[in-house]
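Appendix B: complex inputs.
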Amino acid sequence: MDVFSAMKDRRSARAYLDKPVSRAEIEEIFHYAGMAPSAINLQPWEYIIVYGTEKDRLVRRLKRVHAERKISCGPGTASPLPEIFRNRSRRASQAMRPKVSELGLEFNQFVEEGSCSFYGAPVAIIVSIDRLFPKLRYLDVGLSVSYLLLAAQAKGLATCPIGLISSYGDEIAEVIDISEDKEIVLGIALGYADPESPVNNFKTDRESPDEIRFWYE
Ligand SMILES: Cc1cc2nc3c(=O)[nH]c(=O)nc-3n(C[C@H](O)[C@H](O)[C@H](O)COP(=O)(O)O)c2cc1C
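Resulting structure:
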């Protein structure tokens, strides 16, 4: 698969087949994730791959803390979002809502509980960065995550980045024994997408390039 097809076809998968991902497949994907560029080649990204009974333990803990604290998905901004961003987000949830309804589930509950359980994917990836880095270095981590998502796509696997779980970083750190000097910035579900599930059968839209690109000539 060429890189353009991987970019075009990738979408976040929120239902997974009960089909294991082999260690060799995971290793290959991380080989590519590690090829991302970074400032002065610092490679500040760190990944912890959680699967099997350890993943089940992590999910149980996340579900428990979510039931207590009920943090929902949001932009994480201190002030309300300007209309242009609210519209983009609204369009994405409007595309997804009818698919969640087809499953007979309530939208927020599906997204929040689904996020905390990595949507049933066999592999949960925890992405972290050393707290010593300034926020600009989080960009490098994002580049590596992009490589990871595209490499998975090229291998026929599916992913869903999961920011919600970073709100429960302390609990995750406790379960999988991450030291305090690491900040957990993202989770990623990895597995084989269930092609039959309605929630995997919609595509979010994007702004036209004219909306995000400006020329100075
Ligand atoms: C940093 C980041 C955090 C995200 N957090 C969540 C999440 O907590 N739960 C979820 O279901 N999807 C999450 N997503 C997936 C986005 O909703 C999705 O990427 C967006 O709607 C565009 O859809 P697409 O990935 O199918 O192209 C996240 C994506 C990113 C990049």
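Residues 118 and 189 are 5 Å apart (CA to CA).
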